[in-house]
Amino acid sequence: MRFRHPDGTTVHLAYCTNVHPAETLDGVRAQLRDHCEPVRRRLGRDRLGIGLWLAKEAARTLVNDPSALRALRAELDHRGLEVVTLNGFPYEGFGAEEVKYRVYQPDWTHPERLAHTTDLARLLAALLPEDVTHGSVSTLPIAWRTPYATDPAAAATARKALTALAQRLDALAELTGKSVTIGLEPEPGCTVETTADAIAPLTAVGHDRIGVCVDTCHLATSFEDPDTALDALHTAGIPVAKAQLSAALHAEHPHLPEVREALAAFAEPRFLHQTRTLTAAGLRGTDDLDEALAGVSLPDSTPWRSHFHVPLHAPPAPPLTSTLPVLERVLTRLVGGPVPLTRHLEVETYTWQALPAELRPRTRAQLADGIAAELTLARDLLTDLGLKELP
C-alpha cells in the first residue's frame, strides 16, 4: 500500500511475511498464493506491499539461480504484490517449535550474517518495483548481550562487518541504481537494546546506508520515550531505515493475582518474551515472561511490558492491554511532520499462532482477516495524519 505524504514523498506500508514462516523458495511462493494475495483481496487493493522474510536457504537459491529470481519477481507482479523491504533478522528456523535464543544466531560477529545480509540487499535491488529506487532491510541489533559483552574483540569484529556491508551497499547502488539501507533493530536483551544503544556503534560505522529499524513493540517494552528516542537519532544523524508497527503486552498492575493469571496465558514455549518494568531505580527485566511470573526478580509495583507482538486491532482483554498508544506516538513523529523520517512502514505481528488458544486464528481465512484488519488500522492512522492513500 502506498501513501502520498503532504511533502510529496511516497510512504510504503507493508506487512511482514515472517508470520508465515517458510525456509525454502517453494514455501515462499506458497505464502504468496495462500496468504499474501488473499490479504490483498480482502483489502480491495490492486497492489499490496509485503515485507518479505527470506530464510538462508531461500535466499541462497535465489542468489544462485537468476531464473528463479526472475520468476519470483514475475509472480509478485502477477499476484498484485510488491516488495520494498525485507526482514533480515531471523536467519533460519523461525518456524521451529522453539525459537527463543536461536533467533539471534548467527550474529554480527560471524561471517554468515554479513554474507546473508549482502545476499538480501542484492535480492531486494532486483525485486524492487521499477518505479522505486530505495529499499530497506532490517537486521539483528548486532548480537544478544551474552557472550558478546565478555568478548573484548566482539565490538571491533561487528563494526568491521558493518563497515564492509556499507561498502557493498555503495557498490550495489552504483551497479544497479537502487539504494538499499540496512536498519539495526533494537530489541530487549540485545547489545543494542534501545535506540540510544544504537547511536555509538552506528556512529562508529558512520555511513548513511546503515541506520535503525524502529520496532514500536521493542521501543515500548523498553519504556523508551518516542520523542526522546527519535530526537536523539536525528541529532546523531542516524537514518530510520524502516519502522515496524507492532504493539507489546502491557500490564498496569502486575502484583494482582488476576493480572498474573492473564499474563500466564501469554507465556508460551516458542518465542522469547522479554519483560521489563521501569522503576525509580531504572529499567529492570527478565529474558522471558514465565521467568518474570515465576520469581521475585522483577518488581511488580510498577507496570510490566512484555515483548509479545499482539494484534494491532485487537488488544488483549482486561486486565491487560497493549502499547498501541506508543505506536501512534511514534507514527506521528515518523510521518506526521513536515517531512517523513522514514518511507517504509511494516506491520509485524508474527505471533498469531503463539496467542492464547482461544485467540488464535484456526484457518487461513481467519488469519487473512486478522492481517487485513491490522493493515486497515494502520491505513486509518496514516490518513488521519494527512497522508493520502494511492491506488
Structure, described:
With 391 residues, the chain is an alpha/beta fold. It has 13 helices and 15 strands. The strands form two sheets. The protein has an eight-stranded parallel β-barrel with strand order 2-3-4-5-6-7-8-14, surrounded by seven helices. A five-stranded antiparallel beta sheet has the order 11-10-12-9-13. β4, α4 and β5 form a beta-alpha-beta unit. α2 crosses α3, α2 packs across α4 and α4 runs parallel beside α6. It starts with a strand and ends with a strand. The model has no long low-confidence stretch (mean pLDDT 97).
Structure characteristics:
five-stranded antiparallel beta sheet, alpha/beta, eight-stranded parallel barrel, 20% strand, 41% helix, 15 strands, 391 residues, 13 helices
Strand content: 15-25%
Number of strand segments = 15
Task: Output the strand order for the largest sheet.
Answer: 2-3-4-5-6-7-8-14
Query: What is the element string, with H for helices and E for strands?
Result: EEHEHHEHEHHEHEHHEEHEEHEEHEHE
Helix content: 40-55%
Please write out the topology:
Layout: E1 2-4, E2 10-16, H1 25-43, E3 48-52, H2 56-64, H3 66-78, E4 81-87, H4 111-127, E5 134-139, H5 145-148, H6 154-176, E6 179-184, H7 195-205, E7 210-215, H8 216-221, H9 226-236, E8 240-245, E9 247-251, H10 257-264, E10 275-279, E11 282-286, H11 289-294, E12 304-310, E13 320-322, H12 324-335, E14 344-347, H13 364-384, E15 388-389
Parallel strand pairs: 2-3, 2-14, 3-4, 4-5, 5-6, 6-7, 7-8, 8-14
Antiparallel strand pairs: 1-2, 1-15, 9-12, 9-13, 10-11, 10-12
